[in-house]
Fold this protein.
Amino acid sequence: MPGSSVVEPDDRVFALRLDPQGWTVEAPAALTLAEAAAFAGIELPTSCRNGTCRACLCRMPQGSVRYAIPWPGVSLDEKREGWVLPCVAYPAADVVLTVPRARRVPPPDDNTR
Protein backbone atom coordinates (compact mmCIF):
# COMPACT_ATOMS: atom_id res chain seq x y z
CA MET A 1 0.00 0.00 0.00
CA PRO A 2 1.42 3.46 -0.91
CA GLY A 3 2.48 5.42 2.16
CA SER A 4 2.53 9.07 3.13
CA SER A 5 3.97 11.27 5.86
CA VAL A 6 4.74 14.94 6.54
CA VAL A 7 7.56 16.61 4.54
CA GLU A 8 10.99 17.34 6.01
CA PRO A 9 13.85 19.01 4.07
CA ASP A 10 15.53 16.49 1.79
CA ASP A 11 18.04 16.62 -1.10
CA ARG A 12 17.29 13.18 -2.57
CA VAL A 13 16.09 12.79 -6.15
CA PHE A 14 13.58 10.11 -7.16
CA ALA A 15 12.07 8.93 -10.41
CA LEU A 16 8.54 9.99 -11.33
CA ARG A 17 6.90 7.89 -14.03
CA LEU A 18 3.68 9.11 -15.61
CA ASP A 19 1.38 6.48 -17.09
CA PRO A 20 -0.14 5.68 -19.51
CA GLN A 21 2.39 7.86 -21.39
CA GLY A 22 5.40 6.05 -19.89
CA TRP A 23 7.29 9.32 -19.35
CA THR A 24 9.90 9.29 -16.57
CA VAL A 25 11.37 12.46 -15.05
CA GLU A 26 13.52 13.37 -12.07
CA ALA A 27 11.56 14.24 -8.95
CA PRO A 28 13.63 16.03 -6.31
CA ALA A 29 12.28 15.46 -2.80
CA ALA A 30 12.12 19.25 -2.32
CA LEU A 31 9.59 19.71 -5.18
CA THR A 32 5.99 18.59 -5.40
CA LEU A 33 5.26 15.98 -8.03
CA ALA A 34 3.45 18.63 -10.12
CA GLU A 35 6.47 20.95 -9.88
CA ALA A 36 8.87 18.17 -10.87
CA ALA A 37 6.73 17.36 -13.90
CA ALA A 38 6.53 21.05 -14.85
CA PHE A 39 10.32 21.43 -14.70
CA ALA A 40 10.52 18.52 -17.14
CA GLY A 41 8.07 20.21 -19.53
CA ILE A 42 5.04 18.16 -18.56
CA GLU A 43 1.78 19.72 -17.46
CA LEU A 44 -0.40 17.85 -14.98
CA PRO A 45 -4.02 18.87 -14.45
CA THR A 46 -4.00 21.47 -11.62
CA SER A 47 -6.00 24.44 -10.47
CA CYS A 48 -5.55 25.66 -6.87
CA ARG A 49 -2.07 24.15 -6.28
CA ASN A 50 -2.77 23.94 -2.55
CA GLY A 51 -4.58 20.60 -2.24
CA THR A 52 -8.14 21.82 -1.86
CA CYS A 53 -9.78 21.76 -5.32
CA ARG A 54 -8.75 18.16 -6.15
CA ALA A 55 -8.31 18.96 -9.87
CA CYS A 56 -4.99 17.08 -9.81
CA LEU A 57 -6.27 14.01 -7.93
CA CYS A 58 -4.77 10.87 -9.50
CA ARG A 59 -3.82 7.29 -8.68
CA MET A 60 -0.38 6.31 -7.40
CA PRO A 61 -0.09 2.55 -8.09
CA GLN A 62 3.52 2.54 -6.86
CA GLY A 63 5.59 4.72 -4.61
CA SER A 64 5.37 6.80 -1.51
CA VAL A 65 4.71 10.51 -0.96
CA ARG A 66 4.87 13.04 1.83
CA TYR A 67 2.78 16.16 2.38
CA ALA A 68 3.86 19.58 3.69
CA ILE A 69 0.46 19.89 5.36
CA PRO A 70 -0.73 17.21 7.79
CA TRP A 71 -4.01 16.42 6.04
CA PRO A 72 -4.49 17.53 2.42
CA GLY A 73 -7.83 17.17 0.60
CA VAL A 74 -7.67 13.37 0.36
CA SER A 75 -9.74 11.12 2.60
CA LEU A 76 -8.17 8.28 4.54
CA ASP A 77 -9.98 5.76 2.32
CA GLU A 78 -8.69 7.51 -0.81
CA LYS A 79 -5.14 7.45 0.57
CA ARG A 80 -5.47 3.72 1.25
CA GLU A 81 -6.64 3.23 -2.34
CA GLY A 82 -3.57 5.06 -3.66
CA TRP A 83 -5.05 8.45 -4.54
CA VAL A 84 -2.73 11.47 -4.22
CA LEU A 85 -2.72 15.20 -4.91
CA PRO A 86 0.44 15.87 -6.97
CA CYS A 87 0.21 19.63 -6.40
CA VAL A 88 1.03 19.14 -2.69
CA ALA A 89 2.61 15.65 -2.65
CA TYR A 90 6.39 15.33 -2.36
CA PRO A 91 8.13 12.11 -3.42
CA ALA A 92 9.46 9.91 -0.61
CA ALA A 93 10.51 7.14 -3.05
CA ASP A 94 10.26 6.48 -6.77
CA VAL A 95 6.67 7.19 -7.80
CA VAL A 96 4.34 6.01 -10.57
CA LEU A 97 1.27 8.14 -11.23
CA THR A 98 -1.64 7.37 -13.52
CA VAL A 99 -2.39 10.71 -15.19
CA PRO A 100 -4.10 10.23 -18.56
CA ARG A 101 -4.46 14.01 -19.06
CA ALA A 102 -0.76 14.82 -18.57
CA ARG A 103 0.70 16.55 -21.61
CA ARG A 104 4.03 17.80 -22.81
CA VAL A 105 4.27 21.57 -23.12
CA PRO A 106 6.70 23.33 -25.44
CA PRO A 107 9.47 25.37 -23.83
CA PRO A 108 8.88 29.14 -23.75
CA ASP A 109 9.91 30.98 -26.90
CA ASP A 110 13.03 33.06 -26.16
CA ASN A 111 11.99 35.53 -28.89
CA THR A 112 9.06 36.89 -26.87
CA ARG A 113 11.15 39.52 -25.05
In short: The longest strand covers residues 13-19. The chain is about 10% helix and 35% strand. The mean pLDDT is 89. The beta strands are 3-6, 13-19, 23-28, 42-43, 58-62, 64-67, 83-84, 89-91, 95-98, 103-104.
